[in-house]
Specification:
The chain has 191 residues and is α/β, with parallel strands linked by helices. It contains six helices and ten strands, in the order H-E-E-H-H-E-H-E-E-E-E-H-E-H-E-E. The longest helix is centred in the first third of the chain and has 14 residues. The structure holds guanosine-5'-monophosphate (5GP). Guanosine-5'-monophosphate binds next to strand 2, strand 7 and helix 5.
């Protein structure tokens, strides 16, 4: 998605450890126009998939999951990072190791917000090693729902996530694919 790539080049910067910061429009301050453009693009790519619900993980996936769900005319649910003991009867729970924070969080979605049999589109801001994605796949499948695919704003193609997801047979749609952040320089993969 050309508009997103230009925005990343204009406003993004690279931190040591292969971290791309895009706080000015995606991870802290939110640019509503850009979020709507991304939502529209995800919705276009999954327009023929009869999506019942969009699911993401708090917090940075929420804005783009919301605009995608709005465009598709369906509800959006975000998995929460668990802070307390949850009853297994009430929630689907999985574990996700955070690439940026280096901690493992339990994430959950209340069962009442993920009815069995639905076709689910997953959305997230970044794809690195794929841990967040596999936590979300786990929750959706525990619920007896189908994963229609996963839409990612920024895929770091030099890490393992994209390969793991496609090898596991899931559909992956990334709006910007980054080949390298070496020497703190952003290089995109060819479309
Ligand atoms: P994964 O679970 O695929 O290893 O990492 C994905 C999660 O880590 C994303 O949801 C995002 O929050 C965070 N993340 C991974 N790499 C980056 C990065 O380069 N920049 C930012 N801002 N977040 C990242």
């Amino acid at each position: 998605m050309q508009e997103l790539k230009e925005k990343i080049l204009e406003e993004g910067f690279v931190l040591p450890g292969n971290i791309l910061k895009v706080d000015s429009f995606l991870n802290h301050q939110i640019d509503p126009q850009m979020s709507y453009a991304m939502g529209k693009e995800f919705a276009r790519r999954f327009a023929n998939d009869k999506i019942d619900r969009v699911v993401t993980l708090e917090s940075s996936g929420i804005a783009i999951a919301l605009t995608t769900a709005h465009e598709l005319g369906v509800k959006m649910v975000f998995a929460r990072k668990a802070k307390s003991e949850l009853m297994k009867e009430e929630a689907y729970i999985s574990k996700v190791h955070s690439f940026t924070k280096k901690v493992t969080n339990e994430i959950y979605v209340l069962r009442k917000f993920l009815p069995a049999g639905e076709n689910i589109l997953l959305i997230d801001d970044f794809l690195a090693d794929g841990n967040a994605a596999f936590g979300l796949f786990d929750i959706v499948e525990q619920a007896g729902c189908k994963v229609a695919g996963i839409g990612i704003a920024v895929e770091k193609s030099f890490q393992n996530g994209a390969k793991r997801i496609t090898e596991a047979g899931y559909r992956l749609e990334s709006l910007a694919r980054i080949k390298s952040l070496d020497d703190c320089k952003i290089t995109f993969a060819e479309d």
